[in-house]
Design brief:
Length: 772
């Protein structure tokens, strides 16, 4: 596949012009262009006197792609298309007895839970708020009746704070692995407009988001997940520095060694709980300010000039960044074209504002947050939660100034700059007609006021008298949380507590106002949680079964097994998530896997052999493929020898068409000895572990077992069964098992000079008889 970038066309180009432009750019015949898709479409309106054009990124398929790329090797805008598909890092080999817990069901928690569910891990989601339908009713009760429900509002509930916002799905972060593409695809599958896959600044809008979020929740449930609303986590269960579960407000305990903390910026009680329990919390810079509203027509003319109102462009947006002479940085965020300012508090006696837009963006005003950055050292010293306390004081002050009924204090922008109260308001949003306010936090005013001239200059000559219709509303304090929790940092002066197996996700220092960014963080953090979070100590632990289950990975060692893995990765892309560790002697190893060079001493820690071979791979545990028509199964009851199992798997791989089922209590097929003995067969044989006997009758109709006293295995009847039972190496198959399943007994004819045959040898003979 080929990618073309910087392909420009006029704003009103006909539909077939794009195909013609691609053909001209590549210098090929129209018939040689097999297919193409728009990966991205944007427009450039920075030059006031230039025509606005669409700029495309195109992915295409054509005949003779190699020759085209060679001929256009000098053109940096014609390159091979990157792989934008999402490759899960792991899949549950079997249903886990201990399910992961996701705390919070905002954008980050939603996507973390969805990804875990798609990997077969059946997460339990704990959301303190209510589902979308009831949450919407509670939120409108605040807007219309000034009645606040503290656990169900703009901040808390299904979808998080991003639900009642513009639904913006873009950010300014780098995304080299295209996790954002996966986010968009999931939204589209859930009912979002397909155009979000390619427009430069995609958005969904609040009303559409409610249906999208509901559909995503239904998929999590269909995949075995569980979503529990009105379930607020109030404490952690800790044991010797490791998390063992969570405690809910009603006293219920949920045990899990894997807890994903997808806390939003408004979960202040949760941050206090984490700090109280010894989890490392530190104050971080954040921003405070207000919402500003302009007539949308003013913004359209300023940004788009004569193209204002063009249906292909929609409502225009803007971005403001200003570095004031006093050292403060002022910037806009969460700019909502054609939207409205709404009350967004989650705590009684406090006022917070936020911006919201529908998909159409047809409201009269544009609005944006205008905020100034503040730092712990200069603006809120006093501890890791001092920023939270500052937010609470400012929001309480806004509540008093707004009349104590959750209306926001407001002011005309010109009066704000002059520092005087306004006598009237212009066109404003539904936050209410509260009293005038020029009492801002001094740090906020000191930074914002010098930026006003910068904002006014960006109107490109628009009527400055329209300041009479530019309204500011306070406060906007929840741009992001003022404290953060790192993954693996102990509290200074204390023993590490509550840090292992806890995964805080979704928080980054920059550009956190985008719903898509939070979701993308969930993709990154969930992907990293099972592999990248493992250091060499964790990798060495994979020699033990409990850690293989905990991390969802196992180890293979040696050149032959690595080559088998690389071949298997061509059939199963999820195996490309494996990581290869090599010593300096193998530093030039070529392959598709991420490779890291380590020392001989480190390699010795990863290997369970006396003479390490210098190559070890960490491989994700993947679920077996679904059974195929005509596929037979070998059921192994409580076998214990890893060498036997590995040899048996080699035989099954050689003959093919056979599935391996292991009973509870059997040896782990990912035991290092079993892996070595299999010689890579485990990449070719479907393996299921923990398969209970009682589950077999629902899957198979006819059973056979191997016994010293039975019909000769050479008979034609031997090949007429679906599932073949093999017993423990020492005790064989219990008689009650074969009786319960009405299994027909067969034997391997022989002279009987010794008591029995080796299990792997018997299974090999059976596989041969079934396929000859």
């Amino acid at each position: 596949m080929i990618r073309i970038t910087e392909l420009s066309l006029p704003l009103d180009h006909p539909a077939d012009a794009l195909r013609q432009a691609i053909v001209r750019r590549l210098g090929i015949a129209d018939a040689d262009l097999l297919d193409f898709t728009v990966f991205k479409r944007s427009y450039d309106a920075r030059k006031k006197n230039s025509a606005i054009v669409f700029v495309y990124i195109i992915d295409l398929q054509a005949r003779g792609e190699a020759a085209i790329l060679q001929r256009l090797a000098h053109d940096r805008h014609v390159q091979p298309a990157p792989d934008t598909a999402y490759h899960p890092v792991a899949r549950a080999a079997a249903p886990l007895a201990e399910r992961p817990v996701v705390v919070g069901f905002g954008p980050c928690g939603l996507f973390a839970a969805l990804l875990l569910a798609q990997m077969g891990l059946r997460p339990i989601v704990l959301e303190r708020g209510r589902d979308v339908r009831r949450r919407t009713q509670d939120t409108w009760a605040l807007w219309r009746q000034h009645t606040l429900t503290p656990e169900s509002n703009v901040q808390f509930g299904e979808g998080g704070a991003g639900l009642f916002s513009d639904g913006k799905l873009y950010s300014q972060i780098k995304d080299p692995k295209f996790y954002g593409r996966k986010v968009m695809q999931e939204f589209v599958r859930a009912g979002a407009p397909a155009e979000i896959l390619y427009v430069s600044k995609p958005h969904i809008g609040t009303f559409r988001l409610t249906g999208v979020v509901t559909a995503m929740r239904q998929e999590i449930l269909a995949l075995g997940g569980e979503v529990r609303f009105e379930s607020r986590v109030t404490d952690l269960l800790l044991d010797d520095g490791q998390i063992e579960g969570v405690v809910l407000a009603d006293g219920e305990e949920i045990r899990s060694r894997h807890v994903v903390l997808a806390l939003g910026h408004s979960a202040r009680d949760s941050f206090r709980m984490l700090h109280r329990r010894g989890v490392f919390i530190e104050a971080k810079p954040f921003a405070i300010g207000f919402r500003i509203e302009h007539p949308q027509s003013l913004i359209d003319r300023a940004r788009l000039g004569p193209y204002a109102g063009h249906p292909a462009l929609g409502a225009a947006d803007y971005k403001l960044v200003h570095h004031a002479s006093n050292g403060r940085a002022v910037y806009s965020f969460c700019m909502c074209p054609g939207g409205t300012v709404v009350a967004a508090t989650s705590e009684p006696g406090r006022v917070v504002t936020n911006g919201m837009s529908q998909y159409s963006r047809k409201e009269r005003n544009a609005n944006a947050g205008i905020v100034v950055g503040i730092t712990p050292a200069e603006d809120f010293p006093g501890g890791p939660l001092a920023g939270v306390e500052l937010q609470e004081r400012l929001e309480s002050q806004a509540y008093e100034l707004g009349g104590r009924d959750y209306c926001a204090p407001g002011q005309l922008v010109g009066d704000f700059v002059r520092g005087v109260a306004s006598a009237t308001f212009g066109e404003r949003s539904r936050v209410g007609t509260a009293i005038l306010c020029h009492r801002c936090h001094p740090r906020s005013a000191a930074g914002v006021r010098p930026a006003d001239s910068r904002l006014r200059s960006r109107r490109r000559g628009a009527d400055r008298r329209r300041d009479a219709h530019v309204v500011t509303s306070a406060r906007d304090t929840r741009r992001h949380e003022p404290a953060e929790s790192q993954r693996a940092r102990p509290v200074p002066g204390r023993r590490r507590r509550g840090l292992r197996r806890r995964h805080p996700v979704g928080r980054r220092r920059r550009h956190q106002d985008r719903r898509g960014h939070r979701a993308l963080d969930a993709r990154r953090d969930t992907a990293r949680g099972r592999r990248a979070a493992m250091n060499l100590d964790d990798v060495a632990k994979l020699q033990q079964k409990k850690y293989r289950e905990q991390f969802g990975h196992f180890l293979i060692e040696g050149e032959h097994l690595i080559l088998e893995l690389q071949q298997a990765a061509l059939r199963e892309p999820a195996l490309l998530g494996s990581r290869l560790y090599v010593t300096a002697a193998h530093a030039d190893w070529q392959g598709p896997l991420e490779t890291r060079v380590i020392s001989e001493r480190q390699m010795a820690r990863l290997s369970d052999t006396r003479a390490p071979q210098g190559l070890v791979a960490v491989v994700p545990l993947l679920p077996p493929p679904a059974p195929r028509d005509g596929e037979r199964a070998f059921y192994l009851h409580e076998i214990q020898d890893p060498g036997n199992l590995g040899t048996l798997l080699r035989s099954l791989a050689w003959f093919g068409g056979l599935r391996c089922l292991l009973s509870p209590g059997s040896v782990d097929p990912y035991n290092p000895k079993a892996v070595r003995a299999s010689m890579g067969a485990l990449f070719h044989v479907p393996i299921e572990t923990g398969v209970a006997l009682d589950s077999l009758p629902a899957r198979y109709a006819r059973f056979a077992c191997l016994d010293l006293h039975g019909s000769p295995m050479r008979s034609a009847a031997f090949r007429g069964f679906d599932c073949y039972l093999f017993g423990n190496e020492a005790r064989g198959l219990p008689p009650d098992v074969s009786a319960r399943l009405h299994a027909h007994a067969f034997t391997v004819p022989g002279c009987g000079a010794i008591e029995s045959m080796n299990l792997a040898s018997v299974a090999t003979l059976c596989a041969y008889e079934l396929t000859r």
